[in-house]
Design brief:
There is one protein chain. Helices cover about 40% and strands about 20% of the residues. It is of the alpha/beta class. It has 2 domains: about 150 residues, P-loop containing nucleotide triphosphate hydrolases (Rossmann fold); about 120 residues, no CATH class. α1 crosses α7, α4 packs across α5 and α9 crosses α10. The protein starts with 8 loop residues before the first strand and ends in a 5-residue tail after the last strand.
Length: about 290
């Protein structure tokens, strides 16, 4: 995939062992990145120069770095500063997952955890603790707990496939149901359970917020329209400020009880309003089919 953006881009792929770093690296390769696995963090800038990213011959580079490569917040900060001095845009992708899923994946592959400890759970705990600051510094956090390999591929593509275009804030608007837990990764979260619930209307219960009848019911209440106006107005104010601080990806979560009616309708409406204002948006509905 040719890059029409004059400024080079480097993606650093990191996160917990077992959360999908290798699969993510494959996706980057598919979308045209030059990918290097398990590179010491202090060599990232040297690698980028050696493959010509500064001059533009290799304008998209992805580096996988973990604890074995000396990945920690101090080394990551130093690498990012060096890349920025060379005029290179960067994105840090952090892959996360629940302990039980990480443990199951290691048990299925029968591979040792890279962090040595007396038990697998202690290894996972130690790595999670060591990566707390790295996660806080990351631009994009993808939780792969409920993902299969295809869903992980789609999430990475959604976040990075447009890096060949001029850099701009990408906004992910997602719906969810509180009864299935709050999303693990969200920059801003809004609760729309104050609106009447279509679940209690027999004809609407089997439908979703993607259906006209449910959407019309939700927006038949003046509070829904006012909520939409106020939230999109706030986002139109905030997004340029986030962009000015270098944030390239923003996740907005809209929650209702089950995640099938009110939150879905509002998620679609918010994304449409933002798109009308030339904000790059994607939507997904975590609990729509549950």
């Amino acid at each position: 995939m040719p890059n029409t953006n004059d400024q080079a881009h480097v993606a650093i792929i990191t996160g917990l062992s077992g959360a999908g770093r290798s699969q993510a690296a494959n996706v980057f390769e598919d979308i045209g990145y030059f990918v290097v696995d398990n590179l010491p963090t202090d060599l990232i800038a040297d690698l980028v120069r050696s493959v010509g990213a500064v001059e533009g011959s290799r304008s998209q580079v992805a580096v996988v770095a973990d604890t074995r490569a000396g990945m920690d917040a101090i080394n990551l900060d130093a690498a990012l500063r060096e890349l920025h001095r060379d005029g290179i845009r960067t994105s840090v992708l952090f892959l996360n997952a629940d302990d039980r899923v990480l443990a199951r994946r290691f048990e299925e592959t029968r591979r040792p955890h890279p962090v040595r400890a007396t038990s697998l759970q202690e290894s996972i705990d130690a790595e999670r603790y060591a990566f707390e600051d790295v996660r806080a510094m990351s631009d994009i956090v993808i939780d792969t707990t409920d993902f299969n390999v295809h869903q992980l591929r789609d999430a990475v593509r959604s976040a990075f496939a447009h890096e060949s275009e001029p850099a701009s804030m990408r906004v992910d608007v997602m719906s969810f149901g509180y009864k299935r837990g709050m999303p693990r990764v969200a920059d801003l979260m809004f609760d729309v359970r104050f609106l009447p619930n279509p679940h209690w209307i027999p004809d609407l219960r089997p439908q979703t917020g993607l259906d006209d009848a449910v959407r019309d019911y939700v927006f038949s209440h003046a509070e829904a329209e006012e909520f939409l106006d106020r939230v999109t107005g706030m986002l139109e104010f905030l997004i340029p400020l986030y962009e000015a601080e270098g944030k390239s990806y923003l996740t907005i979560a809209i929650g209702c009880t089950g995640g099938r009616h009110r939150s879905v309708a509002l998620t679609e409406a918010i994304a449409a309003r933002l798109a009308d204002g030339d904000v790059a948006t994607v939507t997904h509905h975590r609990d729509l089919d549950r």
